Each structure stands twice: as C-alpha cells, then as structure tokens.
Amino acid sequence: MFGIGIPELIILLVIVLVIFGAGKLPEIGSGVGKAIRGFKKGIAEPDEIDVTPDEQKKGPKV
Predict the structure, then answer these.
(1) For residue range 6-54, what is the model confidence (pLDDT) as tens digits?
(2) Residue pair 16/25 in contact by the 8 Å Cβ criterion
(3) Residues 25, 17: contact at Cβ < 8 Å?
(4) What is residue 49's three-state secondary structure?
C-alpha cells in the first residue's frame, strides 16, 4: 500500500495525536470520513446535462 507499513502508520498516528490531541481525533476522523464519502458520491453520480431547449431557458418572448 504505497510503501507504508505498520511502523510508519504508528509513527504517523503518534504525530497526529501529539499535534491535535486526543480530544480532536474523533472530529478529525469524522471529517475525513465525510470527505471520502462525498468524493465517492461525486465520482459515482453521472454529470447532469441540461437538455432544456434554448427558447425555454430565455423565458417567454414579450
């Protein structure tokens, strides 16, 4: 997995714990989870295409 093993992950977790503190870890995890979920949702949904005719976009003619 990108050359990151268990020792590197433990060191990274300790650094994050020291920087943000134990109280902020749940908030950080929640934010990362929401970001990943939103990214996956954005990738999975097809792009919306506007198929409204030009006459209807401009509004009624006066």
Answers:
(1) 889 889 889 988 988 888 888 988 998 999 999 998 888 777 777 777 7
(2) yes
(3) yes
(4) coil
Phi, psi of 24 (to 5 degrees): -90, -15
Pairwise CA distance, residues 4 & 27, whole Å:
24
> How far apart are alpha carbons 5 and 48 in whole angstroms?
41
- Rounded distance between C-alpha atoms, residue 10 and residue 28, angstroms: 17
Q: Residues 32, 39: contact at Cβ < 8 Å?
A: no
The Cα–Cα gap between 19 and 57 comes to 52
Report how far residue 31's alpha carbon sits from residue 37's, in angstroms, rounded to the nearest whole number.
Answer: 10
Q: How is residue 40 written in tokens?
A: 């996956």
The DSSP symbol for 17 reads H
Q: Is 0.85 topped by the overall pTM?
A: no
